[in-house]
Write the structure tokens for this entry.
Amino acid sequence: MDWTEKYRPSHLADIVGNGTAVHQMLDWARGWKRGTKPLILYGKPGIGKTSAAYALANDMQWEAMELNASDTRTKAIIERVAGAGSTSGSLTGAARRLVVLDEADNLQGTADKGGAKAILDIIRDARQPIILIANDLYGLASDLRAACDPVQFKALPARSLIPHLKYICSVEKVQCNDQALKDIADNSAGDMRAAVTTLYAASIGKQRIEEPDIRTSMKDGRASIFQLIPAVFGRCAGAELVRMSYEVDDKPDAIEQWIEANLASLKGPEATAQAYRYLSRADEYIGNTNRRQYFMLWRYATVTMLLGTNVASGGHGIHERISSPRRWQRMASSKRQKGIRTALLGKLGGLIHMPQQTVRDGYLNLLSILAEKDPLFFARELDLDADQLGLLIHDRAKAITIAKALAVERREEDKREKIKAQKKTAPEQKIKPAPAVTPARVKAGVLETVLPDEPGSPPPPQQEKQQKAGGRQSTLF
């Protein structure tokens, strides 16, 4: 059995490190009530976020239900799986059901279209606790971040990893010297899962592990762009910077864009101007590479941009979040606007039964004028969200207000429909009519039962006399 699963912590007390995050989760669970914000557990992979969520459910005796990025997370699937879990009770008799949405920052692309909005709707209507898990907090939509309370999980220091690795070795009866364990902990970069996996791979078929045994089991030490950029602006030797750039998967033109996006962290305009001079020179090498297809020039571009920016920074480093290239941000924004426009044209085309291109070329301005006069009608009839309505009436603030009003209307309508459905399914209480009183009379000493008379038939003589007299007649034996 894989050691990462075999030694996965079952209780919060077994979580290694991140004591502040663990206490924050426990306080949240103990005070949870309907309307409490969900939690977002964020941090680098392999440091215990998912394990902590399941350990919390175990400690609180809750049932846990997970929906992760390996599934196709469309809006319909999220509403069917996570939505049902967040509103219904536990099937096992547990006090509550914890809904765990892993890799929430991967809600992007066509497969997850509408997924973020579906999660927001689920959060608003949830009657069960929800935990979202993400590697990058800022990979989530801003409105989704605002609807949750963030809990940060930090990378584990080597001194916290080594005791846990020693414990695993003692249970598995495997001898491992201290230097080998230290090498595993140092090379795991705070990743507990990577450290345990490396130890497991090195121990296969062995009773004792030495330093040479772990070299082939080490985690891939390739640098990422998030390691290269801080090194460029910090105190790092030139040879090390060049080596890291060769390990990064990004090409020199992409590295140049990352460096340019973070030049705001430089101290003073002189340093910024100096860095731009080196970047412009590197950009010339990249342009010549693309024109001549002579890729040896990439080396000159890489050395120029890395060493030049490193000299301009003076080793001050980056003391804020690393910014992604502005060009990518503009491209993402443009792609989002294109999607909004396409959806809007589709709905308008369905309204007037015309193709999207015809609506765009000949009728969009006219429909925009009509929508400005009665935006609430258009939003209600075409089911427009705030973005689509804002694009149509050219008033973002007004569109948001109308979208909120429609959301309230829909919630009230859903409540009325639920109440109506409950009334229809409730068993109707049928009131049984009381049995008719059958008159009786004595004839020849025998008590006779008189059947009800047909409508319009004359009353019996004795009954007629009784009605005329207005009295009552006793039955005697």
The chain has four domains: 3-152, 158-215, 225-324, 327-406. Strands lie at 39-42, 63-67, 97-101, 130-134, 149-152, 175-176, 208-209, 440-443, 446-449. Residues 348 and 354 are 8 Å apart (CA to CA).
